[in-house]
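Two quick folds needed for the group meeting slides. Do the first one here.
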Amino acid sequence: MVAHRIADGVILRLIGKWLRAGVMQDGVVIRTEAGTPQGGPLSPILANVYLHYVLDLWFEKRVRRSMRGEAYLVRFADDFVATFQYRRDAEGFDRDLRQRLARFNLVLADEKTRLLLFGRFAAVTTAEYGARPETFDFLGFTHVCGTDRRGTFAVVRLPSLKSRRKFLARTKEWLTGHRHWKRRDQQRHLTTMLRGFYQYFGLHHCQPKLDDVRLEVQRQWIRVLRRRSQRHRLYWCYLLSRAWFELPYATTCHPAV
């Protein structure tokens, strides 16, 4: 697949050597019989090239042309979402996709694969059965059928529960390992971590979820500070008036589309 675009034999031989080099685990070299070495710097690039031909071009050249209605594919690394206007098209794609991937020694992760009703008509359709439209997670966001400020349909993206738990686990681990740092230094590092989180998830509808994350980080920080002494006086009424305890609030970093 790489040779479709690159004719330089030196580069192609170098990639081949990389794939056959194997990996070292606990001082033991393990030869790779297939695929790319996990964790190798070249692996993400080759995976993208592989899926470009296996999935992207196949969907664009073959799948979309055979569908009765509109069809789109959004992929990032090995995660993707395929959308269809008609349910029959989606069911046919699910069947054809498994056969396509099997030809290239790939399989779908069944625990991460779902077929669901989503879009501007989902709320009306599910309301007939007394239910609400389903949601799905993609790239750290939970996608919800919602409305914009004018009351028209809009896809609302919120930080997923998994993303929030993962970030809070990181802050808790960092605080535990740096509990004896000076308070100002802890504040600067937590501020950097929160701003990084905000810059990715800073969408219009995400404000309440981001505020909850900030509050939980403060609670983690308080628990760590209180463990320094059994006679602490670090109560909320005291801490909230201290400049060194302030953490940045979330702001909308990405304009609404």
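Then this one, please, same format:
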Amino acid sequence: MFKKKIKVGITLSGGGARGIAHIGVLQALEEEGIFPDIICGTSAGAILGALYAYGYSPDEMLDIAVRSNMRRVFKLVLPIRGLTNQTYLLRQLQKYIPEDSFSTLQREFHIGVTNLNAGKHEVWHEGASLHDLVLASSAVPGIFQPIQINNSYYVDGGVMNNMPAAPIRHRCDFLIASNVVTKVEKSPDELTGLKSILARVFEISLWYRSRLNYDDCDTVIEPAGLNNYHIFNFSKTMEIYELGYQGAKRQLEIARKELEAIYAMT
């Protein structure tokens, strides 16, 4: 248990259903007396990061994940009549974070998004609707409609950077990465249909755009076993949560000496 106060940041990657593991990571951190002050989230990480920044505990976030039909948020469908909107996710945000403003959050929160017009990655922490930015960060291209903010259209932040760290690095004494997209090989039998191939391409690209940020982080939590869970399968909430929890526990044992050294200097 760490007693002294330092500024801890955490960046939460995108990863669809695997993002539920972030809740387990946050639970493990809090049990060690580590309460992140600054959160940066992308896609699923933006949704959960917003809840945490608003003030929900990991236990409360898990309850929300269990009770919400999260499959309606990231259901992989091929659009027939055009891209779908995110009405369900918006309703959930309005329900659990009724004040649509960064100023009402209890923790500093940054959201990674992709600007389609400018063709660049951006990280916001003020200056626009909180709800709109969360919707934009989780607007998977090819499935969801882009979100218009000011005069530009935005989509999933993971298109260019699935786990931004540099924008908050200078604001943290210790920066933690929670990456829920791991690289594993797939057998030919696992890539037999359009859905599995599209999901695999999405997974590989997310993994690559997450690892780009590892050098900016002090420790990286990459829970083992998440590759056994489809990134669009929300039916195993408790199992995914537990993998995040156990993965964070193991990594914190490795990072303990570094943390203790930083706390000793404060």
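Slide caption for protein two: The longest strand covers residues 108-115.
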